Amino acid sequence: MEHLHTSRGTYFYAIGLSYKKADADVRGHFSLDEPSKIALLNQAKTNGIESLIVTSTCNRTEIYGFAEHPFQLIKLLCDNTKGTVEEFQEVAYVYKNKEAISHMFRVGSGLDSQILGDFEIISQLKTSARVSKKFGLLNAFTERLINAVIQASKRIKTETDLSSGATSVSFASVQYIMKSFETVSDKNILLFGTGKIGRNTCENLVKHTKNEHITLINRTKTKAQEVAGKFNLLVKDYANLQEEINASDILIVATGAQNPTVDKHCIQSKKPLLILDLSIPRNVNQDVTELANVSLIHLDDLSQMTDDTLERRKAFIPRAESILEEVKVDFNNWLDTRKFAPTINALKHKLLDFKNAELETQRKKNADFNEAQAELISNNIIQKITNHFAHHLKNDDLDESLELIKKVFQLEQTTHV
Fold first, then answer.
1. Which of 47, 195, 201, 286 fits as disulfide partner to 254, beta carbons 3.0 to 4.6 Å?
2. Does the annotation count 58 as an active-site position?
3. Which pLDDT tens digit goes with each residue over 335-366?
4. Which helix (H) or strand (E) covers residue 103, if one does?
5. Catalytic: which of 58, 78, 202, 266?
6. Sign of CA pseudo-dihedral 177, 180, 186, 188
7. SS3 for 180?
8. For the chain, which domains are there?
9. For the segment 159-207, what is each residue's pLDDT rounded down to a tens digit?
């Protein structure tokens, strides 16, 4: 396991940054929209990277992949975002082999989320793996790992209450709105953008506030109409954004743009306006806070709202961690098998060579040589011998045994993942 590498001396790395050390602004510098992700994957292909998964959410941006040195992956990230290598080094993490595998398990299971038990990330990992597969950037190891992480995540969801109650930033947004207004049901709410968190917030608002004054605006109107249809909301044109902002009491911004889409010049009204910016990078310019009637809340502020639900969830961490360990043991067993399979294969071929040479000799010596019977007996013996070796390797110090087998049978050095 310590030598988890491929034929070209590459190792499995997880590199990235998250809410733990990088604030919203820095995460914004490294966030990847869809075109940047595609550009990054194309560049990886050109650079001869064998397998790579890239995710970018409001809480983290990460790359999991095989490389000779982590800098190859860091460079891919910095080439396709506004972030610099110097900035990355200040806030980032780099995990290798076993640690990288463990990190993906923790992230995918919601144990590393900004709001404990938030399972949004697993669907993003699934999607990222699908995209990498299309690009031919998903090797057997990474595909197997992703499937193991998905399995662990499902088990934690069904066997523990880690994700019960409030599940995400969108729920925290609604809680915040409901605490800020005595009666939310008669307030005018404008949702600008149809990002995932925005849509979820919208759904929670409809469910918990019985508000019928929710308006939706998106640059592409058809997208807005799709979302609005689900929740029975009003859709307005992008051209009406300014007047709709001025008619609102609450503005939720979730546009997923790379630069701010709302600033103080959009706001002319003097009545109180609460703005929730649920985007990374930030989509609301900080200058709105210069207006006395405006209060601005960003999703990083919301994530710090610890409530009883989050406290209750902590009790399920040990059970979730033991599920992770169980699934990881299965994955590591598969990895070990994969590690010695090439040697067992080479051994089998060596024994078959012995057999073929011996049969050839017997054929020449014996006129009535029963070839079919000799073939059957020798193949059975070869199978028994290789099974014994495989069984021994599963229960032994793998690297030493592999070396010994290669030495005794003079096998070619085989490579493994």
1. 195
2. yes
3. 877 777 788 888 889 899 999 999 999 999 98
4. helix 98-108
5. 58
6. negative
7. helix
8. 11-163 (3.30.460.30), 169-310 (3.40.50.720), 335-408 (no CATH)
9. 988 766 545 677 778 888 888 888 888 899 999 988 777 788 888 888 7
